């Protein structure tokens, strides 16, 4: 059984996820933990549940999703895995982190790269990598068909979509990617986004004002 634990970190209220199964093997996705207390909260959950983290994954590399990459890399010895098109996005974070109030940001370079169709294996679990560009050029989501779970990053939100006015973003690309990639998943797939509460694919198909059947924007 796949378990999903959500943490909300940093002033951007970013959702970090730990996924683990009955083997206690885990992956950490988008660790936005910057403050020491946030890092301790994440580590305490891992320790208290006897988990063994084996993969460090980013859906994309905007600052709020990568602040804890170095901490996870240093603490658990995990290589950062991203889509290659987001490597420039990751590299840029160090140039503006202080301006956003994160002077202690320490960069963590990607060592492994993810492509559409790749499989993320841990324990008895396998996630599918789906490339959904538009919010960021190398944005991916992680899909677990058996539990109908999708870790969606900043693509699709409850009643909204990811912003596209940052470097590398493109509004039409995101709309097309959501409709062709995410909306091809079953309606009862639960999407865990990078910010805010989880939602269902079917609900967003019917009600999302940007990409739903009665889209207003």
Q: In oligomeric terms, what are we looking at?
A: single chain
- Total individual domains: 1
Give the helices and strands as they follow along the chain.
EEEHEHHEHEEEEEEEHEEH
Radius of gyration from CA coordinates: 16 Å
What percent strand? Answer: 25-35%
Question: Total number of β-strand segments?
Answer: 14
Q: Helices and strands: which structural class?
A: alpha/beta
Q: Which spans of ≥5 residues are poorly predicted at pLDDT below 50?
A: none
Strand order within the widest beta sheet = 1-2-3-4-5-6
Morphology call = globular
CATH architecture: 4-Layer Sandwich
Distance between the terminal alpha carbons, to the nearest Å? 38 Å
Main sheet, how many strands, which sense, barrel? 6 strands, mixed
**Average pLDDT taken over every residue:** 98
Number of helices: 6
- Do you know the CATH topology? Metallo-beta-lactamase, Chain A
CATH class: Alpha Beta
Q: What is the CATH H-level superfamily?
A: Ribonuclease Z/Hydroxyacylglutathione hydrolase-like
Helical content (DSSP H or I, runs of 4+): 10-25%
């Amino acid at each position: 059984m796949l378990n999903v634990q959500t943490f909300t970190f940093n002033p951007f209220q970013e959702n970090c996820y730990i996924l683990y199964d009955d083997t206690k093997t885990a992956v950490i996705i988008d660790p936005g933990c910057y403050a020491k207390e946030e890092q301790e909260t994440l580590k305490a959950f891992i320790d208290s549940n006897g988990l063994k983290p084996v993969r460090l994954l980013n859906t994309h590399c905007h600052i709020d999703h990568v602040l804890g990459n170095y901490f996870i890399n240093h603490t658990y010895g995990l290589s950062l895995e991203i889509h290659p098109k987001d490597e420039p996005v990751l590299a840029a974070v160090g140039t503006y982190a202080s301006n956003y109030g994160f002077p202690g940001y320490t960069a963590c370079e990607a060592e492994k790269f993810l492509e559409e169709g790749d499989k993320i294996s841990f324990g008895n679990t396998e996630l599918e990598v789906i490339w959904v560009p538009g919010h960021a050029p190398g944005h991916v989501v992680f899909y677990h068909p058996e539990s109908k779970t999708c870790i969606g990053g900043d693509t699709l939100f409850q009643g909204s979509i990811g912003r596209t006015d940052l470097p590398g973003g493109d509004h039409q690309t995101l709309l097309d990617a959501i409709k062709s990639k995410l909306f091809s998943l079953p309606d009862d797939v639960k999407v865990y986004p990078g910010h805010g509460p989880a939602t269902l694919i079917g609900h967003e198909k019917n009600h999302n004002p940007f990409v739903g059947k009665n889209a207003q924007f």
